[in-house]
């Protein structure tokens, strides 16, 4: 048997800033505690919080570099703690770890509680499995716990060609909704292929004048989108602000009597298992635009910031 390796490769940033602060280095390999599993990472998903928190520390009281970014992984269970019965060494798993606390997914190994993982979806590789957890759980929890999307509802998905958006379109359609997506013109064919009933090019058309009478808005953009979306929502409708809302937005939605939620996703074994079943059955597709080696994490995050891609970006370890 090969000797246990004490170090591992990981992406680390020692100061906050541009993508160039990310560097590939060696760090101590984590050891699982009694209630944890050690997973050898095959692929790590790249998500907007990865770069946003590289620029701005959160929460500020303990985010002192050096730090390793990332939350989404897919890999193989290497070792289990004394009190872990859910998984065994050799199991292929995927998960979103510890969010919003730091998890260090851009690395060769991670440790976490077993309920933050589920068995990898059958029939897909680790790259696509790593692309699923955070965006998939965001939509799953929003639709199940907050909006309760149901047949016949009209759902507006902003940034429908992105990581969260392309899954929101599909999951809303699976629930029987009429789906309208906003996306750049180059992404329209992709979004329509997901099942969207209408697609609006927000670069050439003001979506606020092109859409009306929707029951739910899923916003991944932020900025002025909550304010511009408010008049489009029917009485009794809802707004889910994945990218946040200003106090003024909250006040306006409250005055209008509309449900609104600044949504923060959380680890969820049951949600992961449900998403895995949909993927295995072919009812939900995870689109990966580009795959980068671990050493090119800075390039992956720079592309993520640009928005010039469809679906997801993934690091292959």
Structure overview:
Helices cover about 25% and strands about 25% of the residues. It has helices at about 50-55, 125-130, 135-145, 165-175, 190-195, 205-210, 225-230, 245-255, 270-280, 295-305, and strands at about 5-15, 20-30, 35-45, 70-80, 90-95, 110, 115-120, 155, 180, 200, 215-220, 235-240, 260, 290-295, 310-315. The strands form three sheets. Strands 3, 4, 5, 6, 7, 14 and 15 form a seven-stranded mixed beta sheet that branches. It has a six-stranded parallel beta sheet with strand order 10-9-8-11-12-13, with helices on both faces. A two-stranded antiparallel ribbon has the order 1-2. Helix 10 (about 295-305) links the parallel strand 14 and strand 15. Helix 3 crosses helix 4 (about 165-175). The longest helix is centred in the middle third of the chain and has 15 residues, at about 135-145.
Approximately what portion of the residues adopt beta-strand conformation?
A: 25-35%
**What is Rg?**
20 Å
Kindly state the number of beta strands: 15
Helix content: 25-40%
Strand-and-helix sequence, N→C? EEEHEEEEHHEHEHEHEHEHEHEHE
Q: Quickly give the structural class.
A: alpha/beta
Question: Can you tell me the residue ranges where pLDDT is under 50 for at least 5 consecutive residues?
Answer: none
Q: Report, as a whole number of angstroms, the end-to-end distance.
A: 22 Å
Round the mean pLDDT to the nearest integer and report it: 93
Overall spatial form: globular
- Helices, by number, come to 10
């Amino acid at each position: 048997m090969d000797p246990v390796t004490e170090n591992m490769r990981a992406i680390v940033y020692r100061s906050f800033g541009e993508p160039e602060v990310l560097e590939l280095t060696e760090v101590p390999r984590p050891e699982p505690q009694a209630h944890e599993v050690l997973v050898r990472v095959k692929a790590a998903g790249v998500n907007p919080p990865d770069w946003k928190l590289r620029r701005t520390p959160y929460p500020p009281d303990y985010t002192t570099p050096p730090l390793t970014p990332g939350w989404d992984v897919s890999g193989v269970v290497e070792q289990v703690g004394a009190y872990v019965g859910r998984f065994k060494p050799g199991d292929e798993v995927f998960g979103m770890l510890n969010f919003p606390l730091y998890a260090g997914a851009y690395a060769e190994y991670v440790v976490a509680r077993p309920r933050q993982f589920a068995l990898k979806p059958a029939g897909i590789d680790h790259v696509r499995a790593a692309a699923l957890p955070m965006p998939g759980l965001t939509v799953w929890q929003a639709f199940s716990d907050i909006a309760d999307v149901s047949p016949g509802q009209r759902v507006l998905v902003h940034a429908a060609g992105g990581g969260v958006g392309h899954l929101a379109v599909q999951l809303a359609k699976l629930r029987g909704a009429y789906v309208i997506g906003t996306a750049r013109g180059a992404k329209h064919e992709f979004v329509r292929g997901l099942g969207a009933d209408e697609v609006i090019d927000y670069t050439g058309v003001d979506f606020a004048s092109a859409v009306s009478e929707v029951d739910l808005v899923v916003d991944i953009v932020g900025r002025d989108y909550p304010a511009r979306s408010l008049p489009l929502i029917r009485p009794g409708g809802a707004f889910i602000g994945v990218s946040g809302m200003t106090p003024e937005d909250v006040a306006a939605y409250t005055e209008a009597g509309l449900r609104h939620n600044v949504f923060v996703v959380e680890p969820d074994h049951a949600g992961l298992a449900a998403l895995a079943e949909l993927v295995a059955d072919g009812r939900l597709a995870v689109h990966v635009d580009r795959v980068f080696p671990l050493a090119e994490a800075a390039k992956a995050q720079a592309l993520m910031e640009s928005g010039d891609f469809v679906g997801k970006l993934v690091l292959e370890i």
